[in-house]
Write a structure and sequence with these properties.
By secondary structure, the protein is mainly α. It contains 6 helices and 3 strands; from the N terminus they run ββαααβααα. Helix 3 packs across helix 4. The longest helix has 17 residues. The protein is globular.
Length: about 140
């Protein structure tokens, strides 16, 4: 698992693959945001705008603090006033190395394909003919 370490305002922060709680927090920050199609670090930084410090606070973990115990607002404020633009872009770039979204989406797509092809899957089209009951006779044309 990749891990990156940064220093902001004399404090060490690390970044590694997001856990479920961080994903939930990040989704809240991204609500209603129009993301760029290229998803380059600079494009994402520009798209996030004033939401960038909060997003960085979610991704970064202060040294010695459990992820669930960190103060997002305090980290966002620290990042806002002590992190330069070059480091912010580097953190976003490293984010994609820690969280390869395309490989995650590929794995989910493969899982869905396997599930659909498995026994007991619902919603699949059947190519077999409908059975007729013994009391019914199939039609052979127009009757008079």
């Amino acid at each position: 698992m990749k891990e990156f370490v940064y220093e902001v305002g004399g404090q060490k922060f690390s970044q590694k693959a997001l856990v479920l709680g961080q994903i939930s927090q990040l989704l809240d920050v991204l609500k209603g945001l129009r993301l760029p199609t290229d998803m380059s670090p600079i494009g994402l930084v520009a798209a996030l705008g004033d939401r960038l410090p909060k997003a960085l606070a979610i991704a970064l973990n202060p040294d010695g603090v459990a992820i669930k115990d960190k103060d997002l607002d305090a980290i966002a404020e620290q990042v806002s006033f002590e992190m330069d633009a070059d480091l912010a872009i580097k953190v976003v770039d490293d984010f994609f190395d820690c969280n390869p979204l395309s490989s995650t989406l590929d794995r989910l797509t493969e899982l869905i394909k396997r599930r659909r092809g498995g026994i007991g899957s619902n919603g699949s089209a059947s190519s077999s003919q409908k059975e007729t009951s013994p009391n019914e006779m199939p039609s052979s044309g127009v009757t008079h």
